[in-house]
Amino acid sequence: MGQRFVVDAIEDAPALATWATIFVSICIQALPFLVLGVVLSAALMAFVPPSLIARALPRSPALSVPMAGAAGAVLPGCECASVPVAGSLVARGVAPAAAFAFLLAAPAINPVVLVATAVAFPGKPEVVFARLIASLAAAIVMGWLWARFGKAEWLRPPRRPSTGEGKLAVFRDSAQHDLLHAGGFLVVGGLLAATMNVVVPRSWLDAVADQPVISVLALAGLAVILAICSEADAFVAASLSQFSMTSRLAFLVVGPMVDVKLIALQAGTFGRSFAVRFAPVTFVVAVTSAVLTAWWLL
């Protein structure tokens, strides 16, 4: 009886129905990739020796940051997967600058995302190439900025639960800890994204599409609000045909790096002091990279 009452209330309130649909879709869309990231993170903790990771990356940030960013191409997941993996890398002694370059690059330059972008923009390989270049450049710049200006007190290293003996016990306990921890922040981010989707009027988009500077900022801001998984955002960008390609590229570059869901996950993993500094700077760098790349290629 109570469930039927809730269903009837949602059906009678279109805005509430839209909010519920967006919230559920964000969580369902992101959860498989979050689980993938948790599994990879736990596997790193349990089965990969810290010395191996340390040897794989150069000590110099000038070299380790680009290598870590390029390594993001091998993780077929979205931003929800990259956060726990980056947290595990930091916990295993990898330089935060390199881990953050990986965190930002992986959701935007992995093969699944690039193929989805090619499908969304048929006959326009330059869009795929522009997304790859702009996203990787932004990730590398953010890694270098952290290496130069980041402070240890801004970063709360990911905490690991006490575990039983043996690698399987470490894997199990780490995966359980990360799934419960990151999953809670995914729900918080989904709630914020759904609320903002309902609050921001769609008519505002049409009003700014013809204004070059404002349209870029508008779509970049929309990417933050919508919090669409990077495997699906290219299809949304393609549908926004009233906007310039520069604006749509900004949407594609910003979304996997800065959105309300991702900010919540970052705050839960690395602390609020980190998130309130890292997210705004990432937004500026991502928009700048998208505009410069579009000027060059599109």
From TrEMBL:
| Keyword NAD in annotation | no
The protein's matches in InterPro entries, at most eight in alphabetical order, are given as: DUF318, UPF0718
Keywords on record: Cell membrane, Membrane, Transmembrane, Transmembrane helix
UniProt keyword annotation of Transmembrane helix present: yes
Bilayer topology term: Multi-pass membrane protein
Residues spanning the membrane: 20-48, 97-121, 127-147, 179-200, 212-237, 249-268, 274-297
Where in the cell does this protein reside?
A: Cell membrane
Q: Which family does it belong to?
A: Belongs to the UPF0718 family.
Name of this protein: Permease
- Organism listed in the record: Motilibacter deserti
